[in-house]
Amino acid sequence: MDKHISNRIGVIGSGSWATAMIKMLTDNQSEKEIYWWVRKREDIAYIESYKHNPSYLTAVDIKIPFEHISSKVKFVFDNSDIIVLNTPAAYLKDALQDLNAEDFQNKIIVSAIKGIIPDENQIVGEYLTSTYGISIENIIVIGGPCHAEEVSQEKLSYLTFGCNDLEKAEIVASLYKSRYINTIVSDDILGIEYSAVLKNIYALAGGICHGLGFGDNFQAVLVSNAIREMEYFVEVINPGSRDINASAYLGDLLVTAYSQFSRNRTFGNMIGKGYSVKSAQLEMNMVAEGYYASNCIQGIIAKYQLDMHICNMVYQILYNNSPALKEVNILAQKLS
Q1: Which Enzyme Commission number(s) are on file for it (predicted)?
Q2: I need a labelling partner for 247 at 20 to 30 A (CA). Which of 70, 101, 196, 285 fits?
């Protein structure tokens, strides 16, 4: 990819984060064409009539031409040079099922997905390289503390773009920067992606503890232990020089663990209050990535024989039906 590539961008997904992506890209002043894959045809008809998403961030006006919105994912791929993947990780395979490796050729793939593909137990970058033969140099991951709801309100936010090729990261980052979006680039693609997965599990843990009645003092200790556990994990998986206190790591963990907009914290809070996993999922209108990630990350923990006390606690509660209070009390003895 070089600097004269046409800025035709396709966004795959139609939830709150994908809708926020559309807003960020259209508010950026650089010249570009934007194509949007929206799964439901009735939602496309609604957007055509009312210029906003009927289900998510309903106050955000959609500024791209209606003819650039399609329920056909191949249409978006065929018309785009840069593809932004923005579905829940558990739904990505279904969204891409009509595509093959040829559809990904000569394209830059940007993952805004902070989760693991459940069946393959792979982060998105690994899944794309193994399934579609995409070179890792053509994959960019987006990280950092940036909730869709605050983007919709144009509150100052920061995004980190991770890629092995920093020039590509810079080019894609330039398409997002605006008066309320600051951008950072990094070559720690694996560290950023794994950290984005882990912070959802830690936010679930925080929500569980809050639902059980643990206070802010305990939450602070939990999060300080979580960032150390995150650093330990990514250093084993991908050794390298990184500042774990940077916004793509600690910043994203903090906002996901504490924010009122955090779906993972909300999900965990429901579990702590006694909801079953199924009832909590039914009540939420959005996917809590940490639920799927908790199961997937256990395979990696076992493979490398890691001591991940917080991740293990969440897994025991969600997948082995262990009482939440029992598991948090066990964890509390291991925190420092």
Answers
A1: 1.1.1.94
A2: 285
Q: How far is the C-alpha of 55 from the C-alpha of 43, rounded, in Å?
A: 8
Question: How far is residue 130 from each of residues 111, 135, 219, 290, measured CA to CA in Å?
Answer: 15, 10, 38, 23
Average pLDDT, stretch 79-99? 96
- The helix (run of H) or strand (run of E) holding residue 132 is helix 124-132
Q: How far is CA 99 from CA 71, 78, 104, in A?
A: 14, 11, 8
Q: pLDDT tens for residues 148-165?
A: 999 999 999 999 999 999
Round the average pLDDT of the chain to a whole number and report it.
Answer: 95
Whether 2 shows a pLDDT value over 90: the answer reads no
- Pairing between β-strand 122-123 and β-strand 82-85 as defined by DSSP bridges: unpaired
Least Cα distance to 227 among 206, 209, 255, 249 occurs for 249
Do 247 and 218 lie in a common domain?
Answer: yes
Q: Is the per-residue pLDDT at 1 higher than 90?
A: no
Mean pLDDT along residues 105-134: 94
Distance CA 32, CA 27 (A): 11
Helix, strand, or coil here: 162? strand
pLDDT score recorded for residue 3: 47
How many Å apart are CA 122 and CA 129, to the nearest integer? 10
Give me the mean pLDDT over the 160-188 stretch: 97
Within this chain, do residues 323 and 231 fall inside the same structural domain, yes or no?
A: yes
Q: Compute the distance between CA of residue 92 and CA of residue 115 in angstroms, rounded to an integer.
A: 10
Q: For residue 289, what are the domain limits? A: 191-332
**pLDDT (mean) for 229-252:** 96
Residues 145 and 251: beta-carbon distance below 8 Å: yes
pTM of the model: 0.94
Q: Is 1 part of any domain?
A: no
The verdict on 39 and 178 lying in the same domain is yes
261 backbone φψ class: left, alpha, beta (φ>0; ψ -120 to 50):
alpha
